[in-house]
TrEMBL record:
Family annotation (InterPro entries): ATPase_AAA_core (IPR003959), Bact_Antivir_Def_Nuclease (IPR051396), DUF3696 (IPR022532), P-loop_NTPase (IPR027417), P-loop_UCP034888 (IPR014592)
Entry-linked Gene3D superfamilies: P-loop containing nucleotide triphosphate hydrolases
Protein name from the UniProt record: DUF3696 domain-containing protein
Pfam families, sorted: AAA_21, DUF3696
Domain of life: Bacteria
Start and end residues of each ATPase AAA-type core domain: 23-323
Residue ranges constituting the DUF3696 domain according to the UniProt record: 339-388
GO molecular function, one term: ATP binding
Length: 392
């Protein structure tokens, strides 16, 4: 499991040390650095999977498209390099990238790694062979390679959906574009009991249906492969008393929550089937197009995924997601789902050039779901608005 991310001179950070937990929530004002954390992991994932022999970090791929190397270095510090360091329970890997103007990759200046038993380093000339080197913290490498990432830019309702032809595609895609294909391909994947909805058999497709119904009572879906094409059609319904409809006629909520449900269930199911390391799932704005009760339920659902063995990192602006996680820690129907020390909550503030204001504040949650600090602008807009309305 990932334990910490350390960034130096990457985008808006001169230096960031970010502790991680089985469930990590990233919050804060717009343009304060939340997406930068997500992108650091997405860059490593797309480099290792799309071009594992690349001499540098692949900046433009299926997960993220960030432009050229000089666009992602910390402009204030004026450095010509940046680093990403990941600490894992099995060891550490430290990537240092050079910055060259207009280059669409960030060349590796050096890669260092360390485990309990070994240390290693590669200079720029040898980094193409990095993944074949002995002594690497394999658990960390496999975690990054198998990462499931869902961006905020999800595709929404479509007439047809693509099937994946890649043998490396084991997720729903960064935009959720492969969700129908994934459900159809892995419909009989066994889901671990702790993640199973009690109202359905423990197979992926039935579990996705059951959890979707939990968010939208009476909802359902059907998926059909179009003969002699690389396409699938998905139909949705919002009531068990109605027929299935084109996704565009149902509303955006179902289309946006379906990839999140599928990704979490699929990640824990594949990890169990293949005896893999704890799967890593990153989701931006899991609350998209969900009503408040659904957002709170999503917080509980994500806590359940973390309790089942996945490592979940989310970026959110939703106080309902936060409160759902707090409920999961205190107990849903009397039973705690996740231990408080398995939750990390981080609040990012805009960079202060004077250095007097920290960029990161990390409230600690206790067993009752209480937080030990509530900094200004941290999910407090409701109180501000109500106070204004009643004249506080």
């Amino acid at each position: 499991m990932l334990q910490q991310i350390i960034l130096r001179h990457f985008k808006c950070f001169e230096q960031l040390r970010l502790p991680l937990a089985p469930l990590t929530l990233l919050s804060g004002l717009n343009a304060s650095g939340k997406s930068t954390v997500i992108q650091s992991l997405a860059l490593l994932h797309q480099t290792m999977t799309e071009n594992p022999g690349s001499p540098g970090l692949v900046l433009n791929g299926k997960d993220v498209t960030l432009g050229s190397a000089d666009e992602i270095v910390d402009k204030i510090s004026g450095r010509d390099s940046f680093t990403i360091k990941i600490e894992h329970s099995e060891g550490t890997i430290h990537w240092r990238m050079q910055v060259e103007a207009n280059e669409l990759i960030a060349p590796f200046a050096a890669i260092q790694w360390e485990t309990e038993d070994t240390r290693g380093q590669l200079s720029h000339e040898d980094t193409r062979t990095f993944l074949s080197k002995p002594g690497l913290p394999i658990g960390l490498v496999e975690t990054l390679q198998s990462l499931t990432y869902i961006s905020a830019d999800r595709i929404g309702p479509r007439e047809t959906y693509q099937a994946s032809s890649s043998t490396q595609q084991t997720g729903v895609g960064a935009r959720g574009e492969y969700t129908p294909w994934f459900i159809d391909t892995y419909e009989d994947l066994l889901i671990p009991g702790a993640m199973c909805h009690p109202g359905a058999t423990p197979m992926l497709k039935r579990q996705v249906e059951a959890w979707l119904d939990a968010f939208f009572p009476g909802s359902g879906f059907e998926i059909e492969r179009l003969p002699r094409t690389n396409l699938l059609v998905m139909r949705l319904r919002t009531s068990s008393a109605t027929n299935y409809h084109r996704p565009v006629n149902v509303g955006y909520g179902l289309s946006h929550v379906l990839p999140v449900i599928t990704a979490c269930l699929g990640a824990v199911g594949l990890a169990q089937r293949d005896s893999q390391v704890a799967p890593l799932v990153m989701i931006e704005n899991p609350e998209l197009h969900l009503h408040p009760a659904g957002q709170s339920a999503m917080g509980v659902f994500l806590a359940r995924a973390a309790a089942t063995g996945a490592q979940v990192i989310i970026e959110t602006h939703s106080d309902h997601i936060l409160n759902g996680i707090r409920r999961a820690v205190k107990g849903v129907e009397g039973e705690p789902i996740l231990q408080p020390d398995h939750v990390a909550i981080h609040f990012f503030q805009s960079r202060d050039d004077s250095g007097k204001r920290p960029q990161l504040i990390s409230p600690v949650i206790d067993a009752q779901g209480n937080l030990d600090t509530w900094p200004p602008d941290f999910f407090d807009q409701y109180e501000k608005d109500v106070g204004s309305l009643i004249g506080w």
